[in-house]
Amino acid sequence: MILTRFTNRRRFSELGEREILALAISAEEDDARIYRLYAERLRETFPASATMFEEMAAEEDRHRQRLIEVYRKRFGEVILPLRREHVSGYYTRRPVWLVENLGVERMREEAGNMEREAHDFYVAAAKQATDAETRKLLGDLAAAEAGHERTAARLEERHVPGEVAEEEGRAAHRQFVLTYVQPGLAGLMDGSVSTLAPIFAAAFATMDTHSTFLVGLAASVGAGISMGFTEAVSDDGKISGRGSPVKRGIACGVMTTVGGLGHALPYLIPDFWTATIIAMIVVVFELWAIAWIQNRYMETPFLRAAFQVIVGGSLVFAAGILIGSA
Predict the structure, then answer these.
(1) What is the mean pLDDT of the chain?
(2) What pLDDT does residue 274 have?
């Protein structure tokens, strides 16, 4: 009966005090669960932030207990199974699978946003309420959420002072580089450089844009699959600290494919020389992007990085043209 009643997503303004209390209880429970997921995710690498989120979860538990006590006094032991998704216009939370994969800085920002969203919603709802008791209840909930936000700031100051935050920021940046940038860069270099020879060899051997595109597509996708699997199975990340092999494999495989497709896609153009000139221009941009990433994330001097990729790319490019023209 209760579940059927809320299947069509009732508006918040239609809820009675019993429903509002039930909704607040489930919301506090969900938020505590999210904070504990944050803590579990960060415990090994960022223990200070993990402790902060554990205390925030405990704070949510205390507020939930207070709400339950009020609910039991007024409406009995059975709490309505009312959740955010049953109410139209109620603020939502990110899916669990998504919040688990946020970085530490993004998690702290998300925690602040969670408290502000809850506070703002209750304030707006209190302004719209006409019943005096309901209006007071919504105002109390808004004040509680504002207190949560101040608590989050206080806990962050206690457990994550400036020097700890900076250290965690450096560690998070290093983890991002190891998990995404390094494998992605290796894939982009392999896809951009290694496919030059077969693509331009096919182009000058056949002078046919469609055949060249098919060769480039096959080379790019094949190299992406190969590089992705190689990266994923070569290191589980436990000893090296390079992070999830699945994430690294996806980053490497996707960027390998992108690197090859960059100069293969121009051969969708029917005119051979137009397609070839555009493909050459794309190669220049690809090599520049590789040098920029090396300089930005790997701290390689830009001129050195540019020289390395240009020399390597030029050799492979020349080999492809010579072989295709033979």
Answers:
(1) 75
(2) 92
Distance CA 232, CA 251 (A): 10
Please give the C-alpha separations between residue 219 and each of 67, 152, 200, 264, in angstroms, as whole numbers: 61, 51, 12, 9
The Cα–Cα gap between 119 and 135 comes to 14
User: What is the separation, in whole angstroms, between the first and last Cα of the chain?
Assistant: 79
CA distance 22 to 132: 19
User: Directed axis angle between helix 182-194 and helix 272-297, to 10°?
Assistant: 150
Q: Which pLDDT tens digit goes with each residue over 215-256?
A: 888 888 888 888 888 878 776 666 556 667 888 888 888 888
170 part of a folded domain: no
Is 307 among the domain residues?
A: yes
Q: How many domains does the chain have?
A: 2
Higher local confidence (pLDDT), 286 or 130: 286
Domain identity same for 152 and 198: no
pLDDT at 2: 45
* Structural domain includes residue 179: yes
Share of the chain above pLDDT 90, in %: 2
> CA distances (Å), 194 to each of 45, 152, 208, 268, in order?
36, 50, 21, 20
Q: Angle at Cα 114 formed by Cα 25 and Cα 13, nearest 5°?
A: 55
Q: How many residues does the chain have?
A: 326
Question: What is the extent of the structural domain holding 45?
Answer: 2-160
CA distance 223 to 229: 10
* Chain segment 61-74, per-residue pLDDT in tens: 888 888 888 788 87
Q: Is residue 97 part of a domain?
A: yes
Look at residue 34 and give its three-state secondary structure. Answer: helix
State how far the Cα of 15 lies from the Cα of 21, in Å rounded to an integer.
10
Running DSSP on this structure, what letter comes out for residue 298?
Answer: S
